[in-house]
Design a protein that fits this description.
Layout: H1 5-14, E1 18-21, H2 28-35, E2 42-50, E3 53-60, E4 63-65, H3 67-74, E5 79-80, H4 83-89, E6 108-112, E7 120-124, E8 130-135, H5 136-142, E9 147-149, E10 152-154
Length: 155
Amino acid sequence: MSIAPTLQKYLDQNVTYEIVAHEPTMSSMRTAQVCHIPGERLAKGIVLRGKDGYFLAVLPATNHIRLPDLRSQLGENVALAAEGEIDQLFRDCAHGAIPAIGECYGLDTIVDDDLNDKSDVYIEAGDHATLIHLDRAQFKKLTTDARHGHFSVHD
């Protein structure tokens, strides 16, 4: 596998990007280490379940999500989606390799403010051996319609 077809089609229609191949990894922080990139520039996606369905929270790989902050900002009770639910939403992705772009998968997205000032951002491509590299302008273009807020804490 390489770039998930759904993601690739969406990216090709909307932005310019680079593909970064790397040895297979099973965590965001390990991916950052292997690729020699700062972990705060690797955006990870976390699927949440709310009252009206699913959405994607996007935050730096160095951070942990703070559900109470997110619940407060969204005004609803949200919970982490189960692995089986995630696999159904991201059918063309390897298990655990969620791209941090929800719109192409029909998911509303909220992006943590800690990603706003990064000169460039990397995201999972849908497998465990490929990243997508976007400059700041391209990442902002992809997340223009997303909600933004501060809902994570640096490890």
